[in-house]
Amino acid sequence: MRSCWVLFFLLLGMGALFPVEAEVYTSIHDLTAVFALERQVVTALTNYLGDMEAKITRIRRYLQEYEQVLAEGPATEEVVVERLAGNPVHAFHLMKRITVDWKHIENQAKTDYWRGVVEAMRGVGMGAMGVHLPKDEDLQGAAQALVRLHDVYNLNMTQLVRGNVWGVESAAEMSAQDCLYMGKHSFNLGMYPRAIQWFEEAYILAGLEANVTV
Ligand SMILES: *[C@@H]1O[C@H](CO)[C@@H](O)[C@H](O)[C@H]1NC(C)=O
């Protein structure tokens, strides 16, 4: 099955001139299945993130309410107790924090969306038995297809890394790290001048990326 990925990317790399072979179809099928699986993982991660944010918000709100009493100015423990005793709202809030908020905070530790993420990654609930997940070799195959594609068609590097493939604009931009990876693969394939081009592009992109983060 692994060779399917490689073949798919290689054919992609050599152009769509070839008639679609059965193996290629299988790989497109794999690609579709993997993409569907990823979407499940993204949904699970979104749920997880929402849950975490809700938990953090609750804890933060609790800490802020606790700070209310102290917000009236620095005080010794005695003074704080006096404030609590002398202000029915403070006293009410104290009771509420202990009886209601603690319970919520204690209970929120019990809900765990992480399990959903792990299950989604394992393909639980979508018959993942048929999903052939790409492996490191497949990633390398995809990289090799890309560097060969760039080499064979002499694609414009500047345009390629900015998402323009065959004159079509896309959001598929490449990072400096991606270019380093491509450079390494070009080198391993003995494509030395191309490797240098990729490394140079990585250097340019690294400069741009640094400017963005500053
Ligand atoms: C590659 O594309 C860039 C941006 O469109 C352009 O400035 C540059 O001249 C092109 N390089 C070649 C060799 O065509």
Task: Describe the protein's architecture and organization.
GO terms for molecular function: procollagen-proline 4-dioxygenase activity. Residues 1-22 form the signal peptide. Residues 27-166 form the Prolyl 4-hydroxylase N-terminal domain. This protein has 214 residues and is an all-alpha fold. The protein has 2 domains: 2-18 and 134-208, Alpha Horseshoe (Serine Threonine Protein Phosphatase 5, Tetratricopeptide repeat); 31-127, no CATH class. It is 74% helix and 2% strand. The chain has a two-stranded antiparallel sheet. Helix 3 (77-86) crosses helix 4 (88-108) and helix 8 (176-188) packs antiparallel against helix 9. The longest helix has 49 residues, at 22-70. It starts with a helix and ends with a helix. The model is unreliable at 15-25 (pLDDT under 50). Bound molecules: 2-acetamido-2-deoxy-beta-D-glucopyranose (NAG). 2-acetamido-2-deoxy-beta-D-glucopyranose is lined by residues 156, 158-159.
Distinct compounds present: 2-acetamido-2-deoxy-beta-D-glucopyranose
Helix content: over 70%
Structure annotation, total helices: 9
Main pleated-sheet profile: 2 strands, antiparallel
**Radius of gyration from the alpha-carbon trace, in angstroms:** 28 Å
- Number of discrete domains: 2
State the low-pLDDT regions, or none.
15-25
Shape: elongated
Assembly context of the chains: single chain
Overall pLDDT level: 84
Keywords: Signal
Domain Prolyl 4-hydroxylase N-terminal: 27-166
Organism: Cherax quadricarinatus
GO molecular function: procollagen-proline 4-dioxygenase activity
